[in-house]
Design brief:
The protein has helices at about 10-25, 35-60, 85-90, 110-120, 140-145, 160-170, 190, 210-230, 255-260, and strands at about 75-80, 95, 100-105, 125-130, 150-155, 175-180, 195, 200, 230-240, 250, 260-270, 280-285, 285-290, 295-305, 315-320, 325. The chain contains 9 helices and 16 strands.
């Protein structure tokens, strides 16, 4: 009996076979055993049959919807109605997912939304507009060919009512595009009322992070319904000043859930004044350059879609009287 720890000696013939096997494996010439392959195939076929039975059982029970990834269709897109924005985003708004457009006041957010609404309507889609800020301008919307006769216009008093409305519309699969204007304009119930007696709160009461918590709950509840309805959810966001950073800069508030669950986030802002569109007008006998718009800058802050790269941006003229001008 060999002593423990002492290596066992192998015959010269076995040593030659081992070296040959290692060399063939290295060169990719090592042949597999047909019997082993046949047994493996039999086992794999049995497992595949069992898997198919389990999938059918789970789908029948309704507890889950299961399929193979090869059958998952690529998400459809809804055009913004502007060629430059469609090219920047690789096709436009994503059906079944959330898109955010945010920026400071007067940067063209709502105008972009109106054009997207009109474009969706022309394609035969049903659109709902949730006016949180009560800032809907019918004449401005008509200027971008919005069909006000078919546009579903919704107002709500609390953030909970707004978000429940989005869930209901998607759950029933009755709309193709929902525009919510704006995220930061929503006021949670707990911000307005206190306790079971529904005592009205004062603006002095602290309600920090209430909206962020509600948005987090909303996405947990709504994501599956938005996806199943193939509804494009467009959220318009207001810029807030980040006072916690060393350098004061604009940021999108609303919590991490908003940033995490949005597949596409676009930031819009006004560019340099020197790049603004101007026209010559006569003032006291002299022609002077007069601003008729501004340089609109659109930047991709986040992208989880194909053909749309984070960090890309475009500059396009925005005219006060007619919106984005792609002809210049």
């Amino acid at each position: 009996m060999a002593q423990r720890g002492r290596p066992r000696k192998i015959s010269k013939e076995s040593e030659i076979l081992v070296k040959k096997g290692l060399q063939e494996a290295k060169e990719g010439k090592l042949e597999s055993n047909p019997l082993v392959e046949r047994n493996n195939n039999q086992i794999n076929n049995e497992r595949q049959d069992k898997l198919n039975d389990v999938l059918r059982e789970l789908n029948k029970s309704g507890t889950a919807k299961i399929d193979f990834a090869s059958n998952v269709q690529e998400k459809e897109r809804l055009s913004f109605g502007y060629r430059c924005l469609d090219e920047l985003t690789g096709g436009g708004l994503i059906r079944g997912n959330t898109t955010v457009i945010w920026g400071s006041k007067g940067s063209g957010k709502t105008t972009i939304a109106y054009r997207a609404i009109a474009t969706a309507q022309k394609a035969g889609h049903i659109v709902a507009y949730i006016d949180v800020e009560r800032a809907y301008d019918a004449s401005w919307a008509k200027k971008f060919d919005v069909d006000t006769q078919t546009l579903v216009y919704i107002t709500c008093n609390t953030a909970e009512e707004v978000l429940d409305t989005v869930i209901k519309l998607c759950k029933e699969k009755v709309v193709d595009l929902i525009v919510l204007d704006s995220i930061q304009g929503m006021s949670p119930h707990g911000e307005q009322y206190e306790g079971k007696a529904e005592k009205e709160r004062s603006v002095e009461d602290d309600s920090m992070a209430l909206l962020a918590r509600k948005l987090s709950q909303f996405f947990r509840m709504a994501t599956s319904y938005i996806s199943e309805a193939q509804c494009a959810l467009l959220l318009i966001g207001q810029a807030r000043m980040d006072l916690g950073s060393f350098i004061k800069m604009e940021t999108l508030s609303g919590g991490h859930a908003l940033l995490h669950n949005s597949r596409l986030i676009l930031r819009v802002r006004r560019g340099q004044g020197a790049d603004a569109t101007t026209e010559k007008i006569e003032v006291e006998g002299k022609k002077e350059a007069h601003k008729i718009g501004f340089d609109l800058v659109v930047r991709v802050d986040k992208s989880q879609i194909q053909n749309c790269t984070e960090g890309n941006e475009l500059h396009v003229p925005f005219l006060f009287k007619s919106g984005i001008n792609e002809s210049r």
